[in-house]
Design a protein that fits this description.
Shape: globular
Oligomer: single chain
Largest sheet: 7 strands, mixed
CATH superfamily of the largest domain: Type I PLP-dependent aspartate aminotransferase-like (Major domain)
CATH class of the largest domain: Alpha Beta
Strand order of the largest sheet: 2-8-7-6-5-3-4
Length: about 375
């Protein structure tokens, strides 16, 4: 018997420890722009909803309350431009658990191929390995077809690069997938953080027409509402795919706690706090972009999301060391794929004071 942990890759963030130690030795302390965890307060209306839902002695429904699913449906119509039925909505315990379990919950196993982006969030790979599937890192439809992919992961806006796929690109992928009986899962967790480009959902009628067949979208409240600590997200799309996910999750006991569901309803029903948070990130993004450019970094893609995809044309580990020497911790692009080996991912998720300090440190001497 081989424990699952031994079949999975090394947890990537452990490799940052030496650089974190260097950054922490800076006289003004470390500025952590690596993982991208939200630092701004949870909006008051969401905290209030959590408290009001705290008297919840019974087991929550795996499917979520009717009010929560209705809130997701209304949000999807308003934000994604998508018409999704209640049966096409399923709450999740954050988005990472859904990403890591989706191949397994869909019934994929050894011999099945899961295609992931060439530059990708590592959990797509981990999820495929948990299910025993073969992983194909490619953005090419021709490669997917040759390999006989059963599931294709998309990520737009991309983590880490901030790249956004257009409606025509997405439609071409969906048309191909339907013709070849392939499931498309689109990670859209940064959808509401478009900067120079407006993201398009896989569920948009311009992409999938008047049918949701074969497509799923994954969303999270972690970034847009500062709820990473609440662990709440959802998957929505084809009811024919969502309902089997629900049945499997009932057996496993993957239930979102009732107070968290109440908080999610409040978050989904209010757009004003999302706009306010976007404005904070916009200011931080502009400041960091300019400062990184002054330090010799070129920013690529970064059209949406919470990161700047930066390069100085050198090994990402050399860039990481240079930043650590200035008390700044970033993420090496190699974490996300071999072709990211000359990039670093710089998060916008630090307080205004820490962002200002980073800008000062990045200025040429």
């Amino acid at each position: 018997m081989t424990p699952l942990a031994e079949r999975l890759p090394e947890f990537p963030w452990d490799r940052l420890a030496p650089f974190a130690e260097i950054a922490r030795s800076h006289t003004d302390g470390v500025i952590d722009l690596s993982i991208g965890t939200p630092v701004d307060p949870v909006p008051d209306l969401i905290q209030a909803a959590l408290v009001q839902g705290a008297n919840a002695p019974g087991y929550p429904l795996t499917a979520g309350t009717m009010d929560l699913r209705a809130a997701v449906v209304a949000w999807a119509a308003r934000t994604l431009g998508a018409a999704v039925p209640l049966s096409g909505v399923l709450p999740t315990i954050g988005s990472k658990e859904l990403v890591s379990l989706l191949p397994t919950l869909l019934g994929l196993s050894r011999g099945d191929v899961v295609a992931i982006p060439e530059i990708a969030y590592p959990t797509y790979d981990v999820g495929a390995q948990i299910a025993g599937c073969t992983v194909l890192a490619s953005d090419s439809i021709a490669d997917w077809e040759r390999a006989g992919a059963a599931l294709v992961w998309l990520n737009s806006p991309s983590n880490p690069s901030g790249r956004v796929l257009g409606a025509d690109q997405l439609a071409t992928i969906v048309d191909w997938a339907r013709a070849h009986d392939v499931i498309v899962a689109s990670d859209e967790c940064y959808f509401e953080l478009g900067w120079s480009v407006q993201p398009v959902s896989i569920l948009d009628p311009a992409v999938c027409g008047d049918s949701l067949a074969g497509v799923l979208a994954v969303h999270s409240l972690s970034k847009r509402s500062n709820l990473a600590g609440y662990r709440t997200g959802f998957v929505l799309g084809d009811p024919g795919l969502v309902q089997p996910l629900l049945e499997a999750r009932k057996h496993i006991g993957l239930m979102v706690p009732a107070p968290i569901q109440a908080a999610a309803i409040a978050a989904l029903g209010d757009d004003s706090h999302v706009r306010a948070q976007r404005e904070r990130y916009q200011v931080r993004r502009d400041l960091l972009w300019t400062a990184l450019a002054s330090a010799g970094f070129a920013i690529e893609h970064s059209d949406a999301g919470l990161y700047l995809w930066a390069t100085r044309g050198e090994s990402c580990w050399d860039s990481l060391r240079w930043l650590a020497d200035h008390g700044i911790l970033a993420a090496p692009g190699e974490f996300y794929g071999a072709s990211g080996n000359q990039h670093v991912r710089v998060a916008l998720t630090a307080t205004d004071e820490r962002i200002a300090a980073a800008v000062r440190r990045l200025q040429p001497a």
